[in-house]
Amino acid sequence: MVPDAGAEDEEKWLAEGIAGLQHNAFYMHRSLDSNNLRDALKFSAQMLSELRTSRLSPHKYYELYMRAFDELRKLEMFFREETKRGSFSVIDLYELVQHAGNILPRLYLLCTVGSVYIKSKEAPAKDVLKDLVEMCRGIQHPVRGLFLRSYLSQISRDKLPDIGSEYEGDADTVVDAVEFVLQNFTEMNKLWVRMQHQGPIREKEKREKERSELRDLVGKNLHVLSQLEGVDLDMYKETVLPRILEQVVNCKDDIAQHYLMDCIIQVFPDEYHLQTLETLLSAFPQLQPTVDIKTVLSQLMDRLSNYAASSAEVLPEFLQVEAFAKLSSAIGKVIEAQVDMPIVGAITLYVSLLTFTLRVHPDRLDYVDQVLGACVKKLSGKAKLEDSKATKQIVALLSAPLEKYNDIVTALKLSNYPRVMDHLDNGTNKVMAVVIIQSIMKNSTCISTADKVEALFELIKGLIKDMDGTPDDELDEEDFKEEQNSVARLIHMLYNDDPEEMLKIICTVRKHILLGGPKRLPFTVPPLVFSSLKLVRRLQGQDGDVIGEEVPATPKKIFQILHQTIEALSLVPSPELALRLYLQCAEAANDCDLEPVAYEFFTQAFILYEEEVADSKAQVTAIHLIIGTLQRMNIFGVENRDTLTHKATGYSAKLLKKPDQCRAVYACSHLFWVDDQDGIKDGERVLLCLKRALRIANAAQQMANVTRGSSGSVTLFIEILNKYLYFFEKGNPQITSSVIQGLIELINTEMQSDNTTSDPSADAFFASTLRYIQFQKQKGGAMGEKYEPIKIN
């Protein structure tokens, strides 16, 4: 090995070596020019003696070797030309160079002359090659020996007695070519491995780096083998592969084993790998425990799957050789043999096997499930994964079927899929659940049966309920919202045309989301409610009584489920959301002509309003929602309607702020006058609401006067005027032109008062209202006549 020298020393030694080489090369050329063979051989041997150095690292030795190689090519050309001319016999020359004093120069010269000897065809190529490969055993120094054998390989690669080659001899000639390359490969590998065991332990890393620089010298032999025409499948199966594998296994060196297995996979055709799969795979469990088998095996499976994808015609071959069974068995044996293999290594192998299976046998779900099952077996008995790399590989394993089939329904058929997910930590489990939901959204997959929904929700349970040991306060708020919104979107993807099955789906979803806890329900209950209401609309008109559990899907049955579901939401508490959902259900019950159900939903909404909605802004929003929904109801009898409208007007007048009271009260006027319904046109009560609103507006003015010293804006009066005009046009006999006239004059008076605060928006609003009145007057016809008595100046 190279002594531990500094970079400067090494540069100096290299420079000295190059100088000595060039000096002798100069005299060698002079001798060649004067046809002085003896001097040429003397100076060439002295030149090549520079390669005997042990001081240089492989990298620097290579620089020196390449300079010598260039000179040897010139020497070879000289030998070839002179032997052609007949200046001397190549056989004599072959004998002559063997008199060189030192073995290394002697063997370089012998290889150079050997090349000319083969080219002259004066002796069979196989004999010369056999002689050369045997002679090279004389050099056992690892670096010098590797470069010498590399030179032999270089000069002989175009002179091998291969089929179709000009050096082809008798029938068995290709066997000799293969034997030569294999022998050279074996010896080179031994030299390469020996490098590892020379020198002190502290330089182990340095040696490994040097070895990695030299590995291609060894690997080139396998490349040469793969290029031989005579190496057909039979020869590869019977001779080449067993001999290479024997050397790989026996060398017991992890660097060599990893590199050479990789070489075998890369240089030989995929078809050969497929037909010799059993032989190749049998070597893997025999490799050293420190060899990174997962990478090599993964590359093999990638190559085979690419080969399968290249043509449909080769697929039967995969079935014929039972590729999946062999690969699966080999991976099992490797994992068993390498007890210290980290969990990430095992999972990486299963990911590669799954990728292979999905590409080669996409129709065999049993194979896919078998791979997942093997992974579960490996993970069983272990705690949830903490290793981020292993977790990443499991996500890749679980994502592969989704990407291949673009259909979660197929993945749901895999019994081991959820069992693999169970081994993920809670955070990654959620990530995987989001990936599953995104796959469903991207492919618009419709999950159409309760069983599939059950299986799906079991898969994404990490998003639906708190997993053990995950405190709520550790969750990022934004992430949590995004996760729950994705669940909400998913609920809308669950659909079946059959109402019975759809009801089962709704019940399944409800069962799962009610376990979600108070933080999740506000996100997940609304989509379930609207999905149920969609079913109600489809079933409109069916109002069969509900008896027992197993009943047909009817609106009544669904409304019962909805009532219980929203009730769970109101306990969260999330009263404003629950109130909105109760009102949505009331409206749906109205469309189904289910008066008692609609009344019950309104009752629940009012109870929530009374007991839970405390914020004044929330109260304003809620009362307007109640009024708006109630106004659209058309199934209530007189008594029920009166009760609900009385409640609504009562709550409107009890709002905290006077302007809010005023607006809610005048909104209630619409409850007593509905255009498209007969019988609800109570002009007197409309007028009562509007007068009450005016009184509240007046009180608001006075309050502003007391607190601020000015009356405040007249906006409320203008808003009430617009309500008067609305009911005036609708034909309410209680709203007369004189009443409107009086209100206009009141507003004018207020606006001109010294106490009133100037408000440009109110001025513009009033001016716009007056323009509207003027427009109606000018329009003519019946409406023009109605508006005629109103004076606006």
From TrEMBL:
<dbReference type="GO" id="GO:0005829">
    <property type="term" value="C:cytosol"/>
</dbReference>
<keyword id="KW-0813">Transport</keyword>
<keyword id="KW-0333">Golgi apparatus</keyword>
<dbReference type="GO" id="GO:0030906">
    <property type="term" value="C:retromer, cargo-selective complex"/>
</dbReference>
<dbReference type="GO" id="GO:0010008">
    <property type="term" value="C:endosome membrane"/>
</dbReference>
<keyword id="KW-0653">Protein transport</keyword>
<protein>
    <recommendedName>
        <fullName>Vacuolar protein sorting-associated protein 35</fullName>
    </recommendedName>
</protein>
<dbReference type="InterPro" id="IPR042491">
    <property type="entry name" value="Vps35_C"/>
</dbReference>
<dbReference type="GO" id="GO:0042147">
    <property type="term" value="P:retrograde transport, endosome to Golgi"/>
</dbReference>
<keyword id="KW-0963">Cytoplasm</keyword>
<dbReference type="GO" id="GO:0005770">
    <property type="term" value="C:late endosome"/>
</dbReference>
<keyword id="KW-0472">Membrane</keyword>
<dbReference type="GO" id="GO:0005794">
    <property type="term" value="C:Golgi apparatus"/>
</dbReference>
<dbReference type="InterPro" id="IPR005378">
    <property type="entry name" value="Vps35"/>
</dbReference>
<dbReference type="GO" id="GO:0006886">
    <property type="term" value="P:intracellular protein transport"/>
</dbReference>
<comment type="similarity">
    <text>Belongs to the VPS35 family.</text>
</comment>
<keyword id="KW-0967">Endosome</keyword>
<dbReference type="Pfam" id="PF03635">
    <property type="entry name" value="Vps35"/>
</dbReference>
<comment type="function">
    <text>Plays a role in vesicular protein sorting.</text>
</comment>
